[in-house]
Amino acid sequence: MLNYSFSEFEFECGLDEAGRGCLAGPVTAAAVILKPNFKNKMINDSKKLSHAKREKLTKIIIENSIAYSVQNIYPDKIDEINILNASILAMHKCLDYLEIKPKFLIIDGNKFKNYKKIPHQTIVKGDQKYLSIASASILAKHYRDKFMVNLDKNFPQYLWSKNKGYPTAEHKNAIKQFGITEHHRKSFNLYDEQLTIDF
Fold this sequence. Notes:
Elements: E1 12-18, E2 27-34, H1 51-63, E3 65-73, H2 75-81, H3 83-97, E4 104-108, E5 120-123, H4 131-152, H5 160-163, H6 169-178
Parallel strand pairs: 1-4, 4-5
Antiparallel strand pairs: 1-2, 2-3
Helix pairs in contact: 1-4, 2-3
């Protein structure tokens, strides 16, 4: 069972993102403020869960949230400001759209920029330690995956419904064969192994 909260503040908000290492599609962030004393043994880092479990948990998380928000930053902006800044911008955008202003923020990883003077704490592997961060990771992954499956309908040659824009061999071979689309991140190395940022 993950911890419910890090701080003693009311309305603690967990933040995480999905799609940072992808070659195509947006980086997607989520912010979640859970109802007090919410517990769920299945919730964990989204990468450790099956698609079916993420589908089920997304509904549970939404039903047990006081407030939540999911926001995308698209490839043109990622290319403009870099993936680290785009990930943080996506999180800030989530906070802009939350119906309740959080009193404290906990963020997966070790990089963040102050948001409207709300105190915050970055937590390495926070999605494996705190329910709200893990919940945010699940929502971000769920909604980004849906976005990529929808994009796949118009670009089936890239197999986005399967690889979700990540740098698989099939995806890279499709780029070599068909070129890139408006949904590819042109600032990324689209042909060699994608370098990941260590948050």
